[in-house]
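Case 639 in the screening queue. Each case pairs one protein sequence with one candidate compound; here the compound is magnesium ion. For every case the pipeline is the same: read the inputs, emit a complex structure as tokens, and attach any notable structural observations.

Predict complex for case 639.
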Amino acid sequence: MMTFGGGGPSSQQANAAAGLPHAGVPGSLAQKVDEVLKAEPVHDAPVIEFSRSQFDRRPFGLRTFLAPQRVALMGAFVLVVIETIALQAGPFLTQFAIDDGIVKDDYSVVVMATIFYFASIVISSLATHQRIRFTGRLGERLMYALRIRVFTHLSRQSMAFYTDEKAGVLMTRMTSDVEALSVLFQEGLVNFAVQVLTLVVIAVALFLFNVKLAVITFVAVIPPMIVLSLWFRKVSDDGYTKVRNRIADVLSDLSESLAGIRIITAYNRRRHNVIHHVNVVGRHLDANLDTARANGVYAPGSEAIGVLGQALILLVGGHMVLNGELTVGRLAAFLLYLTAFFAPIQQLVQLYNTYQQGNAAVVKLRELFLTEPEVVEAVDAQVLPPIAGEIVLDHVTFGYTDDRPILHDVSLTIAAGESMAVVGSTGAGKSTIAKLVVRFYDPQGGRVLIDGHDLRDVTLDSLRRQLGVVPQEPFLFHGTFRNNVAFANPDATDDEILEACRAVGLDDVIERLPDGLDSAVHERGASLSAGERQLLALARAFLARPRVLVLDEATSNLDLTSEAKIERALDTLLEGRTAIIIAHRLATAMRCDRIAVVEDGHVVELGSHQELVARNGRYAALYATWLAHMTGAATNGSH
Ligand code: ATP
Ligand code: MG
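Case 639 output:
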């Protein structure tokens, strides 16, 4: 009988029904494909919940984070117990070999003890091997889930979050905090269990071998050890906090120097910058030297206490052996256990630092997870049906912070299919109006309506799908020209992309590029000129063909010829579409159906170009200045 790999015939039929890959593929080929697929490593499709209204709001903590892995952690703990007990069997077997074998002249006992010794090592090695593999996998899974959770959480945040938080700080959350937690899981937690268990096992063994010697150990050796450890903990605590803060300084100085390299070079500050960085790195060095110094005291100090303890036990124990109170084997085993007793204490003190760092990361991540996006989707948000494009600002009052309103009671109606220019001086609030229309922010007072739907009542996806934005500072992604133009519409064909580029006059630029549409565009678009970047952003909006277009100074960096070209393209693009066009250039504003003049967060004038000129107000004054400038330029040019 023919057998199918994987899901068998039923899954094949299901695939065929759903029009999926195997549909219509001859059986023998499908079988081969299944075989190949079976040999591929399986990555479970991660469950990614990306709801804008409901998400995991539980406070983030070590316990809640580990809770789902409870069973796995118990399994790891069992392995740790086996490993520790097997590892600590050595001194016990030595005592057995000395007292029952060597002293009693019975070599077979010695051989037996050796065999058991060997077996215990094998068992403990196997247990350690399994435990490390197991916890390694577990830790990686946890980190994977955490990274996804952090990124999803960041992706859900509103614009206000990104303007308030420094990008460098967010980077730290994603990298060094997650890393610190990773270290805590992978090494810290399990190692902690191993060391504590070792301490307990050895303490019990010491008392079992000889109570008197055990008491001497605990009275004479443990207190100085604890004092020294507490001192070290305090010093290294301070030290590591300092180191952590200073490495953050180093990183932010580094990233700022890289990002601002043009300004730094232009203002001749490279040398100064190096000096500054030397200082920042120097402070990091100092902090590290402090902790190194503390380490330099602690390691030999605890070593010395341990050795002194052993000497003391040798002195007292030797006397007891001579008195016949103790066998030689027991004394030897006691000393061996004592040697192994101090390593876990040292380890635990070091682990405390790992714990501190992990905990600091937990606190910071908890804070991050507690930030709620300001713009959230209502739980009962409706899908916005295809819109005609009427936009209404209804008594909108808005400020980025509550104490400083930027827009005051703005009311504005833009009919479906109308193009509205927004003009006004710098800082008047023009871009702010654009940001409210695409719901980057919610107004504090009043409503923004689109086709009569309050933006707060519709899903964000269905809203933004019908809006196209060309922001004041266009952003280009690392990739090809093609990817960047097709950003909002990844399925677009090359012809469609080229058509969009032609419409905005970008075809000349593409022809000049070595690889045409496949040419690489670098991050932040540094490889393109400012005007070319704007053209690309326009082509992107052109390709998306949204119902409503918002252009924020989209042509401000273009020369007059390019602008004229764009104007023609815009005429086609805007046909039947609603558009909000923010423009400093009156030539652009004039072509719109109506013009709104914004001053200081108020709409002070509204009407068509002719109406506003006739009104003889603010716009008329702007226009007169512009006209005088243009004619002046023209006369100057003709001379
Ligand atoms: P321009 O012509 O220079 O682009 P604009 O009219 O577009 O100016 P807006 O960007 O709307 O001006 O800014 C209006 C006011 O809001 C300015 O005073 C600005 O300082 C302030 N502002 C803008 N963005 C923020 C922000 N993210 N946080 C706080 N204040 C802001
Ligand atoms: Mg602006």
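Case 639 observations:
- The pocket of adenosine-5'-triphosphate (ligand 1) is lined by residues 163, 400, 406, 424, 426-432, 472 (CB under 6 Å).
- Confidence is low (pLDDT under 50) at residues 1-23.
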